[in-house]
Every structure is written in structure tokens, then in C-alpha cells.
Amino acid sequence: MKREIGPNQMKIDALPARASLTAGQILGNIDYDERATMRAWEDFLADAPKCARDAVRPNHVRSLIHDSWYRSVTGGINAQGIEAPLSSDRDEIEYLTRSNAELLSAARRSFDSLGQLLQGTGAMLVLADSDGVLIDAIGDKKTLHDGMDIHLGIGGKWNEDAVGTNGIGTALWTGEPTFVHAAEHFCAGIKSWTCAGAPIRDPLDGKIIGVVDLSGYSPIFRPHNTALVAATARQIEKALAEQQQEQRTRLLEAFISSAPSYRRKDGLVIVDHRGRAIFCNNVPNGDTTDMMDGPMEPGRGRWLMNLPASGSDADLAKALPTHLRSCQVTPLKLDGDLRGAALVFPSVPAVSSAMTISREVNKHLQTAAAMIVGESEKLLAAVDVASRVARSNGVTSLLIEGETGVGKELFARLVHAGSRRTENDPFIAMNCGAITKELFGSELFGHVAGAFTGASREGKPGIFEMANGGVLSLDEIGELPLEIQPFLLRVLEERVVHRIGDSRGRPVDVRLVASTNRDLKQEVAAGRFRSDLYYRIGAVSIQVPALRERGDDILLLIEHFNRRIAALAGNKPLEFSSAAFDALLAYRWPGNVRELKNLVERLHILARVSTIELQDLPGEINAGNRNNIHSDPAAMLEEPVCSFEDAERQAIKNALAAEGGNLSKVALRLGISRPTLYRKLGQYGIRRGFL
Known about the structure:
- It is a single chain.
- The chain is α/β, with parallel strands linked by helices.
- Helix content is 41%, strand content 15%.
- The protein is built from 26 helices and 20 strands.
- It has a five-stranded antiparallel sheet with strand order 2-1-5-4-3, with helices on both faces.
- Residues 372-605 form the Sigma-54 factor interaction domain.
- Keywords: ATP-binding, DNA-binding, Nucleotide-binding, Transcription, Transcription regulation, Two-component regulatory system.
């Protein structure tokens, strides 16, 4: 049945070329009814939750607009708003200009050519950054002047979180060219405008870095406005690609002139000023996989590191991720400024099969290290020691100490991953606290048929034999009976195991990883653990820090478990309020990482809403325990403060955690301006992406 077209609706395939268009005209192939759209907006505001749940939406409201309205109302946007937020702070505008210099430079040619053509058309062309903040505007002078009434000018913030449905913010959200016309806007004060925005993507990694938008009063609408801004965005992307190619060439030239000892067989990665790989040669894919930031072609576009502001060799070396610290790093400067770095992986002569094995071991080692989530210095130091042990052929045993629940088995698996010579190298784990005293000898060393009452008729190998060629993990080794300890020491010294009841020795090649939550030195002093065995297994030891000693790692682990549990359940991750984060950071975590994981699982099961508030946390976290910790100033220090810079860095990290990464709130909490905060973040190399 053909729908009748009312007096306020017009079905038009080609809009007439005239200066003014009525509100009843069509947006492309979609009917647009000004009054009906306004009624739908008013009905939506009257009962937004019901409208969002209702699968049936009005025919005259596009699903893109309907969805954006819902995001706007649930995000707390004032529907009666008349303008976008505007920053007039000179420092912040200067920072915006400086941080978006490449985007502005790439857009200059397109904006210069279009700016002259827009005069007298009633239209303006604006450029926004990845946060929807306007950094440039050209076009009709009257429209530019009128645009300031709604803060559609440099410094105005036009993402959906700030002003609801609009061409810039909605294009950022969808990642596609988008138009929003008149009554389709969410805020009442901008419903007399029409806008079409197209995202601009970085040619290197595909991330959205800005939006180009054509705006004006609603009569300027044409169906091809969207095509115009999309074409302009592509021109800007092309200019960006040219700029990046020029920088890539200059960085390569800078490297060649500063690295005379480089050999063609060496592996080489050049990173730009953002720490992204822009050139790779002779580098196995595994060497740059861990820190990749999205599915890209091998090598190029992957984020590998944060370049320090100082650019010194020492700071560059510290900034390297753990799995890249075997390379040689060289700062690359252009026109006196640090613009990149060269990572050189010296080639090691070896037969091809050995190289293949080395690559596989390195890949397994990286995968195992990635399972240990955290960035605190104590944890990274422990990971570094475990990785060195794993790569060393001379260390045959390792002692891992730490409280219950800190993740000691992950370190044992890290050693196994780095020790593997074949895919079938075994990893055998036994908890000494779960074995009865009578069965220890049989479990460790095995037995022959009929060796004792209840022995297997065929005999049985012990875990040492089962772990031959691989790693044996003995958890809670402090529970090992005193009378068994001399036999374990003998096996470790002689590398030969004797089954119970058998005089024949069986050679074993086993790397032992022992772990305990006890203080073995005290156990030795008390006579419950042999000193010779302690010094044998503890020649190299790792102290895995308790969770309460790891500072912001608590937030990283919450995010890690939150996303993993949500993905397994097919749900969206939970969100945490600032008060909840404060309580979680202040809690002492006696059960460590295991307790935190169990808490996140519990919250996913029991939470009634998607945002976790303070009252949703267990009583020991949101009440007494938190108060006790805050009453002890020493307990609030997550790491030793040795200088004013240390204190300032820690204060910024604490504020970021407390405010969930919201930089405006962080600046307010610290009593500094946002530009100052930006400078401090760069100065101390602090990232907020995990929050």
C-alpha cells in the first residue's frame, strides 16, 4: 500500500537548486517531516527508557538518529541546551594547535581551496580533532559569526558526550560519513542548523584522528553535502599519507647517518614520534606482536612504545617494553626535535632450524609474559628475572616466593614457555600441600611393581620422569616433609632419579620451579627446612609482590578480568564509579589477584546495573577496611617517594585512578589547568588508556 504524502512532506529525488529549502523536504532518499520529527523527539524525552526499549521506531526517524538520541539522554545531555562547551583558555587552544599540527597541515590545502568558494553560500567548513574539539573553521563570514552563538568555533567541543546528536559527534561515534538535519539534533538550541561530518583516519593505523564537517542554517541542506565532506576527508588523508611518507624517509636518512655500525642482516624497526612502527626489516613478526594496537599488516602501524620527552638514550631504553629490551635503541631527531627512534636487533649467526626454534621460544615467552598483567616496577622486575632464567641454559632451578593468590604459577609457566625446545616439552605441576606424607616419595620419584603395599602392578613413573625435558613446578614446597628433602636434593644435584624399590637410576633433564608462600629462611632457622636444599633451589629467587604493593596494577587487573569475563558471558564490561575505584585501590587485598578475580566474577553475576557503585562492593571493601587504611598515611603510599617529581607523578596517577581517567576532573582535583596536566602527563610518560 502506498503511503500518502501529507502537506508538510515532499517526496523529492532531486532537490531544486535554490537558496532556501523548506523543512518538509527530503534528506536523500529518506522522508523528513519537521513536525513529526519534533513530536518524536518530544515523545522520546517524555519517556526515553521506554522509547529505547521499543524495537519499533517512528518511520520518519532514522535508526542512526534514534540510537544517538538514546546515547545522548543516557549520557545526561541537557536536551534544552543551546550551545556546546567552549574552551577559551589560550594555553589549551595553543596545546590543541600544537598537538594537532599534522592534521591542520594536511587539511590546509583543502581548506584554502574551499574557503573562497563558501563565501556567500551560508555554509562553513570546520575541522575537529579526535575528541570533537574544533581546531579550524572557514567559510561564509556571517555563518562563522552566527556559529559562535552555539560555540561552533575553535575550542568548541562537539562530541556526543558534550552536546548530543550532531554531525561531528555522531560521525565520530559511527566512524562513517553522517548528516544530521535540523530537528534531528538532540539539543533544542541547534535544531535550526544542518551539518554533515566525515571522519578522518590516520593512513598508518586506521584510527580516527578528526572530523571534517559542513555546517550552516538548515536551508543549506543538499543531499550531496555528505559526499562533499567525505571527499574532503579523503583529500586530507591523502595529504597525511604524503606527510608520513616524507617523515619516514627523513627518519631513515637520520638513522643511516647516525648508525654506521648497522649491518644489513640486522633487524630494524623505525618508530615515529608516537611510538608506532613505520618501517620494519628483517624482524620476525613475533618481535613486534605483543604491543600491537589493532589488526594491521605485519609490522607497520603497530604501537610499540612511548617516546620520552627528554629523548635521552637512558630514558629511551627505560621506555622499551620488556620483550624489546634486547634491541639497541637510537633516538632520531629532525630539526632538533625528537621525532622517532630506531630499534636494531643484531643478527646472530645460526642455522635456520635453530633460528626457527628461537623465534618460537620467543613467541611463547611473550605470550606467557602477556598473561602477567601489570606495570608496577616490582612486578616488571620479577617478570624480567623470570624471563632471564627462562632464556638461560645455566639456571636449573628457581624459587618463587609470594603470598597466596599473587599468581606464582604464571611465573612458573613463563619459565616453561621460555625453556621450550619442542612443542611437546612438558610442564608438570604438583601442590606439595595436597599430597599425604606417605605418598610423597612415590609421587616425586615413582615406584616399581610391588615396591610397597598398594603399589601399582606395572610400576609408575614419578613426576620427575614425567617432566623430563621440561619444567617441574612444585607449589608450596615448604610443605615438603623433612625426611623427603635429602632425596630431592640428591636428584637436583645428580640429575638422576631412582624409583622406589629400584636400584637403577634414570637420567632426567628437568628445570625445577619451586614456589612457596612461607618465609623459607625462617623455616630453615626453625629446622623445618634443610638449609642445603634451600640454597640449592634458591640460587635464583623471585619475590612476587602482593597486590597491595602494586599500585595502579589493581585498575589494570580489574579492566583485564572485567573484559575477559564479559567476553566469555557475551555481555558488556561493567563500569566502576570513582568512589568504587577509590575503595578498590584502598583495600588491602589479603587474597591478592585471586581475590580480585573472584570479586569481579561475583560482580558480573550479582550486579543489577552496569555501573558498580560503592555500595555494590563487599562490606570489607567499602566500609571498615577502607577507613582503616586511610587512617594509616604510610599505607596510602604505593611506592617510595624520593623526590618532589616522584610525589607529583604519584599524585597525578592517583587522581587519574580516582577520576576514572577524566582529565577535566583530574585537573580540577589537582588544582591545575588542563594544558598543564597534558604537559605533566607527557613529562612523566603517564598513559590513561587503560582506565
